[in-house]
Amino acid sequence: MEKSDWELLTLLVENNSRQVQSEFFNRYKSFLLQICRIRCKHFDGGEQLAEDIFQNTMIKALNGINLLHKRISVETTNTQKHIKAWLATIARNEFREFLRKNPEEKKLSNPFRLKIDEIEVYFELNDNKDEVIEKPTINKEKLDAGLSLLSDREKHILLVYMEYYNPIEPNRHLPDNVIAQLCNQYNINSTNLRQIKSRSLRKLMIAINDKNI
Amino acid sequence: MIKIFKLLDMCDKKQDLTDEQKFEQKVFNSLKHFGYLFPESIKDVDRFEELHGDTEIDIPDHLQSPDILNSADEFSLEFGLSLKVAAFSDTASKRFELPEDDDLGENDKENENQDKTL
After folding, report:
1. Residue A12 vs residue A70, higher pLDDT
2. Which of A16, A26, A162 sits opposite B37 (nearest CB)?
3. What is the mean pLDDT of residues B49-61?
4. Do A176 and A120 reside in the same domain of the chain?
């Protein structure tokens, strides 16, 4: 009989054997790779980046699994969702780490490090998160068509902005090191950067409102 | 009570949004909904699976096997867990840079020295 997610988690904490790690890996690999692929698909070398984030995330997750186990503490019907959301949070942090780096030193973070605050931030998010995401008013085909009309640079800049977008604080800026990295990568200044983002949004808006697309 | 204030605050902010900001919010919601941004919460995961399903996907051969987590060397990790990790295996060393000396914590350095003495 297949172990429940909680049993698997407990087993990993008590007996972190290769066999148990394999079971965890096999159970979550599809979900994790899928979210990485979708997130990275509009970036240069997206498939490779997705695979790197996938591997780093798996290693980090197994590294910190005892902390997740401690925080969930009892079996619930949501254990699997908790694990998936946690994996996604680690993957997002890996992705952001990648965005912060210069093109010359584009490598992911040390996979042996899962900072304790990364886990705390995840639980804080899930404990206090108000549902502020509304149903989308743009359909997927239109969104894809609109994004495909943007240049690589416009698409990249817009998606990086969106990575840090917070619906509660829509005026919040990108972190300074991400702005610096983008400016350096495209040899532009921060004013140009904002202009490119605005232009990308306008292009996207026109494409989405175009009935022929 | 705090939630009500938060919601009121959000409503106020929504009224102040320019057209571009309103559109930006629409784009964000859509990107999030369609999985172009990482899910962060259990609700996000639900939404993602509703849209993309939770079925198996095609996974390249080199990622099929959990061997990426295994290696001949055992590395002691920050939290005291022992994990056989990819970064020191033959296959993974092509993908991961080995940690620099500066990246290693004191415990890691001790472990490394112990490994060398074995």
Report:
1. A12
2. A162
3. 78
4. no
Whether A92 and A108 have beta carbons less than 8 Å apart is answered as: no
Distance from CA of A128 to the nearest CA of B (A): 10
Q: Are A78 and B46 in contact (CB under 8 A)?
A: no
Tell me what pLDDT residue B37 has. 87
* A109 in contact with B, Cβ within 8 Å: no
Does A83 share its domain with A160? no
Interface of A with B in 64-83 (CB under 8 A): 64-67, 78, 81-82
Q: How far is B116 from chain A (nearest CA, A)?
A: 19
CB contact A121 to B (< 8 Å): no
Q: Which of A111, A135, A159 is the last residue of a domain?
A: A135
- Kindly report the pTM of this predicted structure: 0.70
Give the pLDDT of residue A189. 94
Domain with residue A208: its CATH number is 1.10.10
With beta carbons less than 8 A apart as the criterion, state whether A61 and A90 touch: yes
Same domain, A95 and A150: no
Q: Mean of the pLDDT values across residues A4-21?
A: 86
A105 touches chain B (CB under 8 A): no
Helix (H/G/I), strand (E/B), else coil: B82:
strand
Interface contact flag, A137 B30, Cβ < 8 Å: yes
**Segment holding A191, helix H or strand E:** helix A190-209
Question: What does chain B come to in residues?
Answer: 118
Give the Å distances, CA to CA, from A90 to A53, B25, B27, B43, B62: 9, 24, 24, 17, 22
Tens of pLDDT along A64-88? 888 888 877 777 778 888 899 989 9
Task: Give A154-200 pLDDT, tens digit per residue.
Answer: 988 998 999 888 888 877 778 888 899 889 889 999 999 999 999 99
Domain extent for A157:
139-213
Tally of structural domains, chain A: 2
| A99 CB within 8 Å of a chain B CB | no
Distance to chain A for B102, nearest Cα, Å: 12
Please say which residue of A114, A135, A156 terminates a domain: A135
